[in-house]
């Protein structure tokens, strides 16, 4: 039975990762379509308008993150726990329900059936299914790992936190259905952004925890998960998960304490910034184990984006700046830098860690080319969004008409779309290498 569970865990993990890459490829396709619709609003307007491509892009991007991290957990956790997966059948149920949910929601979007809230634009009964399969995932995780948190490395704390808080925040995001919230716009918007902001923190915990485990393996430095500084920054990240969402609601006339706490917590990210500049980068100076050079390249590139995006995150958390950036393409730039530059590169790096030993020299060259293409094109993509956002903010302050603001931003939006094409090419190159390799991957008995 244990051998059967081990094989099932690997197979389920592989299928989750392939499901994740499928979501990623579809997401960037719809995202590229949406970017072209900025320049040509009538493009596909009769069948696939911007009102459909945007939620399709966002929903599939989120499910790329969750499907891929679920697959990595199913493959890695038995290694960490040094025991077989608790239940292979529960893992299959998780996979089937997750894939079915994606299919139902995407079909609904194509048919124009929207409900729920921003980023969760599907019927509330779908949320019940999502919470159910995350509970299955959580039981399988905790039963397999049986963590002793008193002696556990920091990445185990991060995995535990990520799973628990995703379930909590997904349920919290449905409070809008209660009259106490949906009859009061201030409560409604505040709780919506609190839930969404903390949910982002939950998947960050899962992704960063996995990346930390992989970095430990790649650098062969077993102190990474146990030093006091790592735990100090884990608790700082947990505090941010709980409170720094408030910078999304500066414009909402909620209680001033919410905004003050959010601002103070957001500014603690300066400590994260200093830590990256002084110590995190130093860890990457240690040369990786020879067979993990591609993994190392992805993690190191993601580290660059952590630095870039954290500077932007701190800036837009300052109320005086947030007043002009909120709702502009600057917010989109921050989201894209985090989702693609950090989370996607970290996840791909973790997938490469699993398969790198079986990659051919030619495959590794293709991976490197894909990574460089992603990195360079994302930089221009990100810069063009910042420029478009500054143009929009300036136009609003000067009381310009929307058409005039759009005209001024058009050159930047052209760069945005063009760099988006190259970004998709880079992602396709990487996915075309990863998918066949992960399909063939097996853990040796």
Commentary on this structure:
This protein has helices at residues 2-39, 50-81, 88-110, 124-145, 154-172, 179-182, 185-219, 228-243, 256-267, 269-283, 293-316, 319-325, 329-355, 361-397, 402-440. By secondary structure, the protein is an all-alpha fold. It has three domains: 1-144; 147-271; 287-445, Up-down Bundle (Four Helix Bundle (Hemerythrin (Met), subunit A)), CATH 1.20.120.
List how many beta strands DSSP finds: 0
**Could you tell me how far the N terminus lies from the C terminus, measured between alpha carbons in angstroms?**
13 Å
Shape: globular
Q: Give me the number of helical elements.
A: 15
Order of H and E elements: HHHHHHHHHHHHHHH
**What kind of sheet is the major sheet?**
none
- Rounded to the nearest angstrom, the radius of gyration is 21 Å
Structural class: mainly alpha
CATH architecture call of the largest domain: Up-down Bundle
Which percent range fits the helix content? over 70%
Report the top-level CATH class of the largest domain: Mainly Alpha
How many domains make up the coordinates?
3
Roughly what is the average pLDDT, rounded to an integer?
Answer: 88
Could you please say which CATH topology of the largest domain applies here?
Answer: Four Helix Bundle (Hemerythrin (Met), subunit A)
Note the beta-strand portion. under 5%
Give the tags.
445 residues, mainly alpha, Four Helix Bundle (Hemerythrin (Met), subunit A), disordered N terminus
Brief description of this entry?
The protein is mostly helical.
